[in-house]
Amino acid sequence: MKITVIIPTYNEAGAIGGLIYNLEKVFKEIPSHDFNILVVDADSKDQTPDIVNEAQKKYKNIEILAEPIKRGLGAAYIYGMKHAISKFNSDAIIEFDGDFQHNPEDVKRLICEFDNGFDYVIGSRYVRGGTIPEEWSGRQKFLSKYGSWFIMKTLNLPTHDNTSGLRLSRVAGFYDKLPLDENKILSLYHAYKIHLLCEMLKLGAKTKEIPIKFLERRGGDSKSTVRDIFESLKVVSILKVRDFLGK
Ligand SMILES: Nc1nc2c(ncn2[C@@H]2O[C@H](COP(=O)(O)OP(=O)(O)OP(=O)(O)O)[C@@H](O)[C@H]2O)c(=O)[nH]1
Ligand SMILES: [Mg+2]
User: Fold this and answer.
1) Are 62 and 30 in contact (CB under 8 A)?
2) Pocket lining: 37 vs ligand 1, CB cutoff 6 Å
3) Which residue range or ranges hold the Glycosyltransferase 2-like domain (predicted)?
4) How high is the pLDDT of residue 190?
5) How high is the pLDDT of residue 42?
6) Which of 5, 7, 10 to mutate to test the pocket of ligand 1 (most atoms within 8 A of CB)?
7) What are phi and psi of 184, to 5 degrees?
8) What is the pTM of this model?
9) How many Å apart are CA 79 and CA 174, to the nearest integer?
10) Rg for the chain (alpha carbons), in Å?
11) Which three-class secondary structure state does DSSP give residue 9?
């Protein structure tokens, strides 16, 4: 199967080189699938694009999409997902952060569940065995943990980590049916994840959460802002109303 790992980046020079190297090592250990990497870069001002260009000389399975400006995580993923489906004919898409907060080794576990027949595999910080960084402030821990809990309770979801950035999604029957359109997605920022999660569940995706140890970011700065909290509240409210109206 063709598996595309999409990595959105904005100023991730401290992490992206090592991340690609480690992902490529993992790919070699899974010869049953054909992997490629799609970096969607939001016009980084640091060395991120240069480092990716350098890696392209060594590995032939890397492509970089350059956005003219930083438009938000959801916009970057929509761009990358559409490209993966139309240009690479990908069978599955893995969403993967570019700051090394996800462990490349976890790709093996995502693929294992995909091979077991799951359509949607979520790397979860909030099931038994999952963790968030010790170094996080109390505010960060509270917002992340209770944010996910709030989304689960409000929207009546079976999943515990509803904002996780590590996911594998099957394309056939699922991502090829989703509103992967900037005008239809409910948020162009981090909250797009809540919308796509609900759409996948609505489509009846066989879903599994696997525990992950979410690491501290490696260099660079967080791009998550207060706006993301309001975007999440907006998306949850719209989905709740739609659910109420049976849409
Ligand atoms: N292309 C693109 N990438 C983005 C954008 N916003 C964030 N990213 C990247 O998306 C990934 C996740 O963003 P982060 O800022 O790490 O979000 P987070 O993991 O929730 O926040 P931290 O825990 O503070 O790191 C990182 O690789 C970012 O560089 C964007 O607007 N465009
Ligand atoms: Mg991060």
Assistant:
1) no
2) no
3) 4-172
4) 97
5) 98
6) 10
7) -105, -25
8) 0.97
9) 17
10) 17
11) strand
- State how far the Cα of 247 lies from the Cα of 44, in Å rounded to an integer: 39
Which residue is listed with tokens 């509270």?
142
DSSP helix/strand/coil, 52: helix
Q: What is the mean pLDDT of each run of 10 residues along the chain (247 residues)?
A: 98 97 98 98 98 98 97 98 98 97 98 98 98 94 95 98 98 94 96 98 98 94 90 97 89
CA distance 215 to 223: 16
For ligand 1, what atom is nearest to the CA of residue 136? 23
CA 70/CA 72 separation, integer angstroms: 6
Cα–Cα dist 150/115, whole Å? 31
Could you give the CA distance from residue 198 to residue 159 in angstroms, rounded to a whole number? 10
Note the pLDDT of residue 224: 85
Residue 39, H or E segment: strand 34-41
Q: Is 188 exposed, middle or buried (0-12, 13-18, 19+ CB in 10 A)?
A: middle
Contact call for residues 48 and 9 (beta carbons, < 8 A): yes
Task: Please give the structure tokens belonging to residue 228.
Answer: 């993301």
DSSP, res 157: -
Tell me, what's the pLDDT at 223?
A: 87
Domain-wise residue ranges, the chain: 2-245
**Whether CATH 2.60.120.600 fits 2-245:** no
Distance CA 154, CA 4 (A): 32
Closest CA to 141 of 153, 155, 131: 131
Residues 6+ apart with CB under 8 A from 236: 150, 151, 154, 155, 194
Q: How far is C-alpha 99 from the geometric centre of its chain's CA atoms?
A: 12
